[in-house]
Structures are given as C-alpha cells and as structure tokens.
Amino acid sequence: MNTMRLADLTPGASAIVTAISGASRIASRLMEMGFVPGAAVQVLRRAPFGGPIQYRVHGVSISMRIAEAACISVTDIAAWSEAHPGAPVGGLQVTAT
Predict the structure, then answer these.
(1) How far apart are CA 93 and CA 89, in angstroms?
(2) Is residue 84 within 8 Å of 29, Cβ to Cβ?
(3) I want to staple 57 with a disulfide (CB 3.0 to 4.6 A). Which of 17, 34, 44, 73 is the partner?
C-alpha cells in the first residue's frame, strides 16, 4: 500500500488512516478524536496561508493544524480495499470491482 500524510491530501480527497505517529500525548488525542487505523477520512477544506485543515471522520467535522495532520499516515481507499477485501470502510461495506 502506498502511504502518505493526511496533511498532504487536497480538499475532496478521501483516505483510510493506517497509523498515528508523534508524541504519545498528540497521538492519543488524535485517536480520541476518531483518527484510528481503518477510519475513513475526507478532506473538506483548507484555510489560506497555512491555516487549519478541516476533515470529516466518523461523520464529525474536525479542524486541525498541519503539524498535527502530518502525524497521521493514510492510504488511498482503493488500495486499502484491495489489501482488506470485504472490510467495512467508514460504515460502508466495500466490494472489489
């Protein structure tokens, strides 16, 4: 699977969380907000001039700094579905096409 940082995605993109890195306090807080491995995340919008980025995870809209979003590793939904056939994604059952 090709992994990237959540902070690098553009608005409208969706991905699956694969890992959380960084200081344990930050990682714990991100997981408490719903950014756990296997969670589907959508990028809603980016603030100008390097401001916060707004995401949707588990149906909740959350804004965070780029530095925090950079601690979250994600992969493309299609690639994740191929590696985990039949696994639910964001509450939906994914089938290979």
Answers:
(1) 6
(2) no
(3) 34
